[in-house]
Amino acid sequence: MRMGIIGGGKIGALRAASVKNADEHELVAVLDMSPDIAKAAAAGTNAITTTDLTEFLKTEPDLVFISTPPHTHREFAEASFDAGAHVLCEKPLAHTVEDGRAMVAAAKQAGRHLATGFNMRYYPFVKIVREAVDRGMIGNITHVRAFGGHDGLHNFSADWQYKMPLSGGGAMMDVGIHISDLVRYFLGDITQVSGVMSESVWNLDGSEDNSVAVFRNAQGIPALYQATWHEWKGYQNWIEVYGDRGMARGSYAPMRAMVISRDQNGRQTKKSHLFPEIMVREKLKTWQSTALLSFEDELRDVVRLITEGDIGEAADGHDGLSSLEVAQAVRQSTETGETVRLDPLGRMV
After folding, report:
1. What secondary structure does DSSP assign to 229-281, as a single string?
2. Which of 341, 331, 342, 343 is nearest to 195 (CA)?
3. I need a labelling partner for 84 at 20 to 30 A (CA). Which of 14, 112, 251, 307 fits?
4. Confidence band (pLDDT; 50, 70, 90) for 86?
5. 283-320: pLDDT as tens digits
6. What's residue 258's pLDDT?
7. The pLDDT of residue 266 is above 90
8. For residue 186, with 0-12 CB atoms within 10 Å meaning exposed, 13-18 middle and 19 or more buried, which class applies?
9. Backbone region of residue 309 per phi and psi (left: phi > 0; alpha: psi in -120 to 50; beta: other values)
């Protein structure tokens, strides 16, 4: 397939590397407002580099990666759909629910696929939890606990990453967006949201530094959720899925997982996964080495979606839109003190 990258920065460069590492695909164009950044992302390929969207789309990419700030996603996605391309857009899908809905509608109208870059689904700790659930090792799910956080604004390299309106919000649109998706990944559509946001640490209007919520799916199964920018222990993500016969927990960083299961005779087993090889690799090659592997897995599923109609574990446009609706619902619940109900979206495919 012919592939193009819009936004050649840190994440865009990793997306470009995932294409380069797949011999069956060709990187044909990289668009970035910085010619030097575009050239660095395209290095080692015959891809053109440009600052002009029209010139970029003239290369006729089959799949466009959008790795730019979220307030630009809608414009680039709609133009790509109009040109006949499929789109894999980084998280968050957009900076507003309205833009996210417009992107989903544009994909459907054009008959193209829209995927959302929730690559954490491909991290080993999530795979182990997914396997435990799918194999029935923990029985029927009773509840979920999920957390995503880091220790503040020094983790960002640009103001748009944390300041409204370009960011679309605070912790729930940043580190928490992956966690919102993981809750949906295990529970399905989130249909009820009750929560409280605060802006009392960094004091940024519209950018919550802490969000605590209870989500429920259509069957009433709850999830306890927190996204925060004042986790003083540093960057952490974890998901715990509890069943009536056990539980599965996965976390990062460092990468760890644990599954506890009880058989029909009441015997309990516990298996822990520590991933020392990942710790060593990240020590030598940074976290980007793990992200790149997840991008390669995600790319394979998105290509299969386009060519075979099978999305695998990849997130689609509805997954991306749901995470935006959930963040908006927590803000609404904060303001009203009431539970917010959301319509189920299902899958796009």
Report:
1. S--TT--EEEEEEEETTEEEEEEETTTEEEEEEE-TTS-EEEEEE--HHHHHH
2. 331
3. 14
4. very high
5. 999 999 999 999 999 999 999 999 999 989 999 999 99
6. 98
7. no
8. buried
9. left
Order of strands across the sheet that contains 236-243: 268-273, 256-262, 246-252, 236-243, 141-149, 222-228, 210-217, 190-198, 340-341
Q: From 345, 344, 129, 328, select the one nearest 213 (Cα to Cα).
A: 328
Q: Is the pTM of this model over 0.85?
A: yes
Spatial neighbors of 308 by CB under 8 A, at least 6 apart, are none
Rounded CA separation 48/102 (Å): 29
As given in the structure block, the two tokens for residue 84 are 């006949």
Using 50, 70 and 90 to split pLDDT, how confident is the model at 47? very high
Residue 16 neighbours by CB under 8 Å, 6+ apart: 5, 8, 27, 30, 41, 42, 45
For residue 191, which of 43, 292, 339, 75 has the smallest C-alpha distance? 339
CB neighbours of 139 closer than 8 A, spacing ≥ 6?
A: 243, 244, 245, 246
Interior CA angle at 210 toward 160 and 188, to 5°?
Answer: 90
Residue 159 burial (CB < 10 Å; 0-12/13-18/19+)?
exposed
Mean predicted lDDT score pLDDT of the chain:
96
